[in-house]
Specification:
Blueprint: H1 2-19, H2 24-53
């Protein structure tokens, strides 16, 4: 159990350091990826809703 906790702490630390990296291109890339994922999710949700309505 202790091993899992340390792995989670390391993962959280890595996430925080990657989020605070001042490289603008990385933030722009991640924003584009997030935006495309949101668009895909919305598209899938709309398709499912239309399928249920018909």
């Amino acid at each position: 159990m202790r091993i899992k906790e340390t792995v989670n702490e390391q993962g959280l630390y890595a996430l925080l350091t990657s989020l605070t990296v001042p490289s603008l291109s990385w933030k722009v890339d991640s924003f584009i990826v997030m935006e495309s994922l949101l668009k895909q999710g919305r598209h899938i949700y709309q398709e499912r809703a239309r399928f249920q309505l018909s």
